[in-house]
Specification:
This protein is mainly beta. The chain has a single domain, classed as HesB-like domain (Hypothetical Protein Aq_1857, Chain: A, Sandwich). Helices cover 13% and strands 35% of the residues. The chain contains two helices and nine strands. The strands form three sheets. Strands 3-2-5-4 form a four-stranded mixed sheet. The chain has a three-stranded mixed sheet with strand order 1-6-7. The termini are far apart.
Amino acid sequence: MSSRVMVRMAPALKGRKSPLTLTQSAVQRLKELQSKSQPEEKTKTLKIGIQGKGCSGNAYTLSWVDEAKKFDEKVTQDGVTVLIDSKALLTLIGTEMDWFEGKLASQFIFNNPNVKGACGCGESFLV
């Protein structure tokens, strides 16, 4: 008795869109910040997260880390790598990170399409 086995090829996987995009000014600023680290030190990676605080309930957090945790999302663009905390990933999908430098303030700005509201000072947001 013989049996036949059919093999079906899986469809090609589509490339997925990055959960976070960086503007050229943000890329340039991150490169500047990483180049200022001491040569003998291991280069640190910027990690973006979300913390519950402020008038509207959520605020972005930025921290330098030595390595990614197990479920952190890694975003690489134009030679710069940024990590996204796994708990913040769904909130940040589709976000653009920009660098603003003005006379009174210099800061990273997040243009997040998922935000439903923000406080008057712009420090916290609601999803």
